Sequence to fold (330 residues):
Amino acid sequence: MGRGLPRGRGVGALSRRLEAPLAQAQEMAEPIEPGPATTLGPVLALLLAALSFSLMTVCVKGAGHRLPVAEVVLARALVSLALSWWMLRRLAINPWGRRRRLLALRGLLGSVALACVYGAVMRLPLATATLLQYLYPTFTALLAWLSLGEQLSRRLLLGCGCGWLGVLVVAQGTNPAMADLSLWQLLPQPLAWSGSPALIGLLLGLLGALLTALAYVSVRELGRSEHPLVIVFWFPLMSLPLSLPWVLHDPVRPSAIELLWLLGVGLFTQLGQLGLTHGLTQLPAARATTIGYVQVVFAAFWGWLLFGEAIGTTTGLGALLILAAGLLSR
Fold:
């Protein structure tokens, strides 16, 4: 880590407190530097994860016409929890892990991020909602600067500028009321967004990207000491109690078709989480998350094929800016 802003006293104390458990984790499983022959499996796992997550968004959009977000999150948690428990029992792995507080935090962050992403998918085209999620590399770099004092380079600043400009451009292409305005006319028009579902979708997408950045950092750290299945198991374990009260407050009985959509959400999310966790724990985070950008291509294809969502010039330009921001933030 290069020179940067000075760390705070609290961060230093926390770092010293974490040295002992991290040292023990490294003794239990010293990471092996992946070579060309050992990276093919994690790369394929990440590609499968991107495909699975794109199919998950299709199922979310199908179920979200009538069902609330909390009910979709709960269904996903029930399916994923059952599958994770079965896999852990079959492999005779202790499901509770070693670093339970961090596992619980990862599950909490992931659960709220998931709800935000689902909310964005229900209100925006698939490609647009997926693009907003891929602002998380920029958020990760900014969080490292704020909390750890890491250097804020010119490349990172350029990446942040590209990312937020991309969001503005995508917003212009998303809101029909703004479609005829130029980019510079869009800046002073906040009232045109009042009460817009697109605005809510954009805000949910941005919040989901921020929480995704925090969750991915925790997954990378947990990979030092925990089995990937344990990390995956704690995700729905935290989602279940978080979503259940919302569902009980205002339940909606799903139809037979909606039950199939909900089952697809759970199955594809579980498959995606397994591939993602395997890739993040086996490859450097920058490379692993870069591979995940192929999910944007999958989402655009499904949106065009199944929902008639055309990708206009404005959205395409915003996509290029957001993808460039993610690459510059590494």
